[in-house]
Write a structure and sequence with these properties.
two-stranded antiparallel sheet, six-stranded parallel β-sheet, 8 strands, disordered C terminus
């Protein structure tokens, strides 16, 4: 067994009871690549307002699972803003968020350079076909060990075991999961001990990189208005998420900043390999 240790896991800050990593693209990418090289389990989620608020509302389910992840990257601008507002005096201001789609490209670039294969799990067969083509055009030396489009329903134990076996036998060094929140985080959590490699939940990255769904203009992303762009694309599906959860997030965050909101801390952990535990990596 490889006993080399991973580089230090980034500190987590408690936002509405969810430990969010104070991290940047390079830190995330380096940790994921090293985990892949050492064949060590590592779970990564890129979280936005929807995911954070859902975790607060479901502390024993989605919230608990997120708090066991190795890395919980600040995908949404409002999440990055919260990290900066809640930082300690000796912590630097984070200048950028860590978007799941962009993180995926950074990882693929390094994986291609280091001959680490990837596996794609989620979305539709049409999206996966185009996605694989686009990724290999962008990174010609990238090794794609396999891809699975699971049914849009709960899997039977036999189906789940078959897909897990397929991923394991592919020899993939990194697994990207795109099932939507909270399904993708639940899948990563439930399979983290079955796969000896990083599992990275990347949200809508498969749809974006395949061209299936357009991305918001950069100026909207910078102002934290990506949610508005997506809402205008799919108003019937997304109105509850954005018009109910976004205001709730702001209210709850305001209460936390005023120290009027009790938030759980004991369940926030950093899951690493047995060779590398960092209990000090919890900020608050």
């Amino acid at each position: 067994m490889n006993t080399r240790t991973l580089k230090t896991t980034p500190i987590k800050t408690n936002i509405l009871g969810i430990g969010v990593s104070r991290t940047k693209y390079k830190d995330c990418t380096d940790l994921i690549i090293q985990s892949a090289q050492l064949r060590q389990s590592c779970t990564v989620a890129a979280v936005n307002v929807h995911s954070i608020t859902s975790g607060y509302l479901d502390p024993d389910g989605h919230g608990y699972q997120l708090n066991q992840f190795t890395l919980v990257a600040p995908d949404g601008q409002p999440v990055r803003w919260a990290l900066n507002l809640l930082r300690n005096h000796d912590e630097e201001i984070l200048p950028e968020r860590v978007r799941g789609p962009e993180l995926m490209l950074n990882i693929c670039e390094q994986a291609a350079a280091k001959e680490i294969s990837i596996f794609l799990y989620g979305s539709t067969e049409a999206v996966l076909e185009t996605l694989q083509k686009n990724l290999q055009e962008k990174f010609p030396s990238l090794i794609i060990a396999g891809a699975v489009s699971p049914p849009f329903r709960p899997l039977t134990p036999q189906e789940d075991a078959a897909y897990t076996k397929q991923i394991r036998e592919s020899g993939a060094g990194i697994v990207f999961v795109s099932l939507g929140c909270p399904r993708q985080e639940a899948w990563a959590f439930n399979h983290r001990h079955q796969l000896d490699c990083p599992i990275v939940a990347v949200g809508a990255a498969f749809d974006f990189h395949s061209g299936n769904i357009p991305e918001a203009p950069f100026w909207m992303q910078s102002l934290g208005l990506e949610w508005l762009f997506r809402f205008l694309q799919e108003p019937k599906r997304l109105w509850k998420r954005y018009w109910l959860l976004n205001p709730l997030y702001l209210i709850l965050l305001g209460l936390q900043l005023l120290k009027l909101l009790p938030v759980e801390q004991d369940s926030i952990e950093v899951e690493t390999s047995s060779a590398d535990r960092h209990p000090e990596a919890i900020n608050r």
